[in-house]
Design a protein that fits this description.
By secondary structure, the protein is α/β, with parallel strands linked by helices. The protein has 11 helices and 18 strands.
């Protein structure tokens, strides 16, 4: 048998991050469920005459808005082009914002139905799409989603169609690619278990891996709530024999500056091999797909230790401030710290919401919005999140989130600078004390 290098791949890039529109449906940790003071929650383009009413739902605001807006704008371009060309067949388009939440998508679908929708573009993302496609099936409204990739969107529904790939096919293709390219025979999977997209890919990958003779040496999971620290999962991958790991730079390692990018770390020969496949043999990592962001990437890594220290100092300040106001904190202000998370127990919903509102008001981005509790998928109760980050998803920037249940505990973290973190905490305290 030909000698092969036993390679364990941590498939975080494929299975853990929703890289394509329509693949999510559970919202990305680190963002805020926000209600702008004056926001358009639906977009509509009306035609006169006997135009077919075409409707769809998608995240037009929030963390997944890039996907919803892309689908809505693409449909709008098509409608405009048809109108410009003239003819008897015309369309009136209306999109409703579902903020990537199934329950909201159901309400959005019902609003479109009341409007008189005759043809549905379904929902942009998968989990909302599963909910709305069931309603479209019951109402016998022809539906074609551009990007809802879960098989459950169309399963058992003879009037609902998908225009894109399905989740299992991505897992199938991943296993086949690893085998065909000789990338290895041992695989460790890190996947998001509260997301149908990641779950579908993982399940099909495992099936195809067994058929192809790939050995899945282990797997580890994470959820929307825990998608800020993968040290435990990566340690498990290493213990299982992983030679390569893949990660993201928009989280803490980016120091709040890296706008994009990921990293591959591990054995020198394997990293060089991955770089050759990513770019061109002979060039490899000397010329990668960095979008001109190298300066920000390196500057983020350079500043990360100092920025982390600022976040720890902000957490200690917040703890002491809240202790002086009579609230219980974990860790306490005088405790030696090992991470940037600060827990504050409010004991009631109203002070918790006020505190989050103040944190949002102190954010450098989106300070004009108000965080509200919402039913985020993956949680068993409503959740409130406050964040206004320069880099979407950068958990090192000041943020605060909390499940709306006893003991009504807020989880505060981040602060690019101590001054900005302190200002955010003081504004939160001011909002908390307002009216008392």
């Amino acid at each position: 048998m030909k000698k092969t290098r036993f390679l364990s791949l941590a498939l975080t890039g494929t299975l853990c991050v929703s890289l394509l529109a329509g693949c999510g449906g559970s919202g990305d940790g680190g963002g805020a469920a926000q209600t702008p003071d004056a926001a358009n929650t639906s977009t509509v383009q009306e035609n006169t005459g006997s135009a077919f009413k075409l409707g769809g739902t998608g995240p037009l605001t929030g963390d997944a808005a890039i996907y919803g807006l892309a689908a809505q704008r693409g449909a709008q371009i098509a409608v405009d082009e048809i109108k410009e060309a003239g003819g008897d067949i015309q369309f009136a388009l209306k999109y409703e914002d579902d903020v990537n939440v199934p329950e909201t998508a159901v309400n959005a679908y019902n609003a479109l139905k009341e409007w008189g929708m005759q043809i549905s573009l379904g929902s942009v993302t998968s989990q909302p799409g599963v909910s709305t496609s069931a309603l479209a099936f019951e109402d016998r409204i022809f539906t074609m989603t551009p990007s809802g990739s879960s098989p459950d969107v169309i399963s058992g529904k003879d009037n609902v169609y998908q225009m894109c790939f399905s989740d299992p096919n991505q897992g199938l293709a991943s296993a086949q690619y690893i085998t065909e390219q000789g990338l290895g025979e041992k695989v460790f999977i890190i996947w998001k278990n509260d997301d149908v997209y990641s779950t579908g890919i993982k399940e099909q990958f495992v099936k195809e891996a067994e058929t192809l003779g790939l050995e899945v040496v282990g797997d580890a999971t994470f959820t929307t709530d825990t998608a800020t620290d993968f040290s435990v999962q990566l340690t498990q991958a290493q213990q299982a024999g992983a030679d390569l790991v893949v990660g993201s730079l928009i989280k803490n390692p980016g120091g709040g500056l890296a706008p994009t990018g990921g990293y591959i770390a591990g054995r020198r020969d394997l990293v060089e091999g991955a770089a050759m496949r990513l770019t061109t043999p002979g060039i490899g990592k000397e010329c990668g797909s960095t979008f001109g962001a190298n300066r920000s990437l390196y500057q983020g890594l350079f500043l990360a230790p100092h920025t982390t220290a600022q976040a720890v100092k902000t957490a200690a300040f917040a703890a002491r401030m809240m202790e002086l106001l009579g609230y219980r904190t974990e860790p306490t202000s005088d405790t030696v710290r090992h991470d940037i998370i600060q827990m504050i127990h409010f004991g009631a919903p109203e002070p918790l919401k006020k505190f989050c509102k103040g944190i949002q008001f102190g954010a450098p981005v989106d300070s004009f919005v108000t965080p509200e509790p919402w039913d985020m998928p993956g949680y068993d109760c409503p959740v409130i999140m406050a964040a206004g980050a320069f880099i979407q998803g950068a958990s090192i920037e000041l943020s605060c989130d909390a499940p709306m249940r006893e003991p009504y505990t807020a989880y505060l973290q981040g602060g690019l600078t101590y001054e900005s973190g302190k200002a955010g905490v003081l504004l939160a305290v001011e909002e908390l004390l307002r009216g008392e």
